[in-house]
Amino acid sequence: MAVPNTANNGVDALVAEKRYGEERAKRLRDDGEEQFVVIANSDKFRHFQEDPNEDTAAVKDVRTMFPDNQCQVLVLGAGFGGLLYAVRMIEAGIQPQDIRILDSAGDFGGTWYWNQYPGIMCDIESYSYLPLLEETGYIPKHRYASGEEIRNYAKLVAERYGLTNSAVFRTKAQKLIWDEVSKSWDIELVQQRKEEPPQTLKIRSQFVAAVNGVLSFPKLPKFPGVLEYPGPMFHTSRWNYAVTGGSQAEPSLTKLQDKRVAIIGTGATAIQAIPHLARWSKHLYVVQRTPAAVDHRDQRETDPEWYRKEVATSAGWQRERSRNFHQQFTTEDRPKINLVDDQWTHATAMVSICGNPNGPKSMDELPAYREKLLAIDLPRQNRIRARVMQVVEDPNVAEKLQAWYPSWCKRPCFHDEYLSAFNRDNVTLVDTGGKGLDRINGDSIVVGDKSYPVDIIIFATGFRSPVVGTPAEKANITIIGRNGVSISEEWQCSGPTTLHGVLDHNFPNLFLCGPSQASVGPSYLFTMDQLAKHAAYILGQAKRRVAEKPFAVTPTAVAAENWAQQLMVRALSMANISGCTPSYLNVEGALDRMPPEAQLTMARSGTWGHGIEDFMEHVEAWRAEGSMQGIEIRT
């Protein structure tokens, strides 16, 4: 399909492609991910990771949680992913008291615990995003749930399934070592409570679920002068209401009324926080490298009567609503009825990162496929750029807020108040032309030859890329499997050897949560739940087949290799991420510069290129067949 010469509401395809290339060129840097420092990996910057919400008195001592230094199932992560793995294992026959859930946070919620900045809400509709709605009977308060509601719902789920007393907070696993004799994991734990010395403990667990999430480690840009700045600074994932005033429940940032504030970044987090900062700051400087493509959200309260009649209509409604949502992300055979019908579901070109069963089958088909998606995407991006010009009063500012990249190159953003914030006299857009801040000089941020004195600096600079790294790196731990094999070395050298992304051949009884060799969709919690169900099924079946004997469960080497080959055959559907404006999705442009052998390993480590529903068809058919084909159980 050829790209049409013109598109409604804006520039034609050739002009757009040229601008896309120019925007990408502004952001390309030789240092890639090295332009950032991951807070957790740096002693100098680790104070940025301190938790302003810590309630030490509410955190149980790690030793009392492991009275005999062991458990049956250890879940790494107390976000929704960890909760879902625990819930599905309970449904498979594991008792809640035999499960321990570990997290360095002070409560349940994962990313929704850490990110408590003003204005935070989910950009996926809550009726699809929040898991277990059918099981709990909970009715979300809004079409898009606030961060506070989501965090409280996580605690409700824990209570409902008897997991509240299974949580071990302010605690992380340092090292996991497989013991072939006992068929279990030896684990080193460390608990760090505020203003207390760390406590270490060695335990043993027969099974481990590594569910650490994908946006777990905040990062800061490496520009000079950060550590010399005299005023308050914090990352949005550690929002300090003691500095700004207010709270997540009542974001009246009254302490900013006489303050000049700079927020660094204009991604998905910043667009939610900026309207609140603009409302309360004496002056707000918004430092931008690349503008976000911000569509409208159309937030509204949930009418319970409408919800019961139109949403929660019958048994299995949430699964069918999710299926309908996912089916909007295909270039062919979209459902006639769009149950969600928000701006996500009209971003069809997102198949480039969600996967597409109708994608290219060979390299020869790839250029035409890219042209087809650009043609589909151009009217949407033109409309979003036109919206900027309609909302923002200053044409010079509006032009700088227009996003020039295809929809799939960055996570789409949705907000009804972000753009209008730039109409306020107390808000200044500091556009850096893709380069970012140059330095901090004394009490001023510096861009080029201009200095801006500020009293507070807030970093909305995101997290370590979830695209690269093994389960060990994603949890900042060491994992040693069979025959002394390190998962970090094994995966970096030759890629994963999993079946369905949940079990690796070299690491028995270690349940994984993707996205490597699994699938992704706009709503990552749906994927996590499906993988949790799959892991629980494998564990439950294995336990039934060996009675009470200790055992090790892994995929066979042949099954793992066959799965990797199936992934690689489908990888071309995801190839459009190459050539994108640098972001965490393409490791700041590093994917394009990888040598062929590294690209091959990345393809092997990637996600199912035909989309989440096609992935689920394969996984569910495997379960329905019933023989646990490709799974090896050793006693």
TrEMBL record:
Q: Which cofactor does it need?
A: FAD
Q: List the transmembrane segments.
A: none
**A Gene Ontology MF term for this entry?**
oxidoreductase activity
- Is Manganese a UniProt keyword of this protein? no
Q: Which domain of life is it from?
A: Eukaryota
InterPro entries given for it? FAD-binding_Monooxygenases, FAD/NAD-bd_sf
**What are the entry keywords?**
FAD, Flavoprotein, NADP, Oxidoreductase
The entry sums up its family as follows: Belongs to the FAD-binding monooxygenase family.
Please give the name of this protein: L-ornithine N(5)-oxygenase
